[in-house]
Amino acid sequence: MTLKRVIRQTTIESVEGAGHFDAIVVGSGASGGLAAYKMTKAGMRVLVLDAGLVPPLWQRPVSRTLNGLVKLVSNPIALQYLPARVTWKAREWLKLAGRHRQAVQSTCYAWEGLPDGFVDDLDNPYETPDEQSFNWIRTHNIGGRMVVPGHGRQYLRHSESDFSPSDSASPDWPVTLAEMAPWYEEVERLLQLSGQANGSEWVPDSLISNDISPGPAQRAIMHAIQEKWPEARPMLGRFADPLDSMAMAAETGQLACRTGAMAARLLVSGGQRAQGVEFYDKRERRRAKAHAPIVFLCASSFETTRLLLNSRQDGALRQTGAPDGPLGRYIMDHVSVKAEGLMPDRGMARADFDIGNCIYLPRFDLCSATARGTKRGFGVRLYRVPGPGERSYFTAVSDAEMLPNADNRLTIGDQRDRWGIPTLRIDYRLGRDEQYQMRDQ
After folding, report:
1. Beta bridge partner(s), residue 401
2. Is residue 230 domain-shared with residue 269, that is, in the same domain?
3. What does the DSSP assignment read for 76-87?
């Protein structure tokens, strides 16, 4: 059975049927889709609730038309034939127009690739303290952020130093690299990763299905990097197309999927056992309930926290998230810096283009003797997208990890979204270490 057919057949009546499902999964992104696939493959009847539902053209004619134009001018194929000045100017103007309903989402570099996949900021508000803004980027769509064009598609394992940081700024993870290794391998086998095994102490080797070598242009770039920074250890990224786990789950015949379902709160028994989920159904324009003895919360970290906090406020969860407890605290974001520009192709064949086939520089911070940021450092990814003529768009992206801080937290704010669900207040700021980290990057 196809996923489209599953979605068509998952009516509100079938969702509300008592005792119909073995498990409910909230969210259909990388984790939710894989959870659904694993359980349906084992013979369990699974319901996936996903918030995504693109409004019809007649309901949002301006935004739907605008979003179509945005996707057109940002398409990698179009970039090869349109003059660079034309595409940059068109994207700039269209992004400006998109701010009417997506003022926050349109600030994301990947927004242009799938505007309809990102939330409508007017329908999905949130609060921040005065003079302390935070851009909450979020998608509501089958597949989550992984299927957004422009996603880097990198799948790198954490190292032992990630699981057990030596800086004592946070406790060790409750699992080790050795314990995670078989789970990494299972996912990597499904993904069919392309890349190389490098023996890096910072990026443990993965299960590689398609062993590839750097092309001539990549070798030249790697050589130039090592000439300038001898301590650098450039490597190819490890990449794959997004795993279509929801379609794989649909093929088992055990999947139900309701789109346009905004999870509002957990249904919990008197013994604090999950019994299901209450959600707002965008099609029926009313609240509904789905029941199952197992519930997987696989929305984004912020959305999952909102669901738990709202469940606590409604009295469903008595012990989770006490006022002085950890729920909602220690929120962390990437400390990211990006540089991009249009440069000569340097001999790279256009037929070789794959957005995931990038160069990665692990722990590039170690190449600087003056780095003052966190001891956890940062890496750099170098991407290339074919441009007009004999030139390409090159992008360097550096991501670093924040340190946990209890004052960076999520609470339930005073606003409600379009569907009457209480929204988040995000209290977040960069600390001194993160500010030093940004300067290092």
Report:
1. 334
2. no
3. HHHHHHS-HHHH
Q: For residue 73, is it within any domain?
A: no
* Residue 355 located in a structural domain: yes
- Give the predicted TM-score (pTM) of the model: 0.89
Q: Do residues 142 and 246 lie in contact, with contact meaning Cβ atoms separated by under 8 Å?
A: yes
- Separation CA 439–CA 378 (nearest Å): 12
Give the mean model confidence (pLDDT) for residues 336-353.
74
The answer to whether position 287 is within a domain reads yes
Query: Distance (Å, rounded) from C-alpha 169 to C-alpha 147?
Result: 34
Q: Are residues 173 and 221 in the same domain?
A: yes
> What is the domain count for the chain?
2
What was the pLDDT predicted at 78? 58
DSSP string across 396-428: EEEEEEPPP-TTSEEEEEEEE-TTS-EEEEEE-
Does 322 score more than 70 pLDDT?
no
Strand spans (E) along 27-165 = 46-50
Please give the pLDDT value at position 384.
84
Instruction: Report DSSP letters for 217-278, one per residue.
Output: HHHHHHHHHHHH-TT---EE--B-PPP-HHHHHHHTT-EEEEESEEEEEEEE-TTS-EEEEE
Average pLDDT, stretch 218-224?
91
Only one residue has tokens 């990057």, namely: 441
Task: Tell me: do 262 and 382 sit in the same domain.
Answer: no
Residues 358 and 384 in one domain: yes
CA distance 306 to 320: 12
Task: Map tokens 């329908």 to a residue.
Answer: 123
CA distance 180 to 112: 35
In-domain check, residue 406: no
CA distance 252 to 260: 23
Distances (CA, A) of 21 to 16, 29, 277: 10, 20, 12
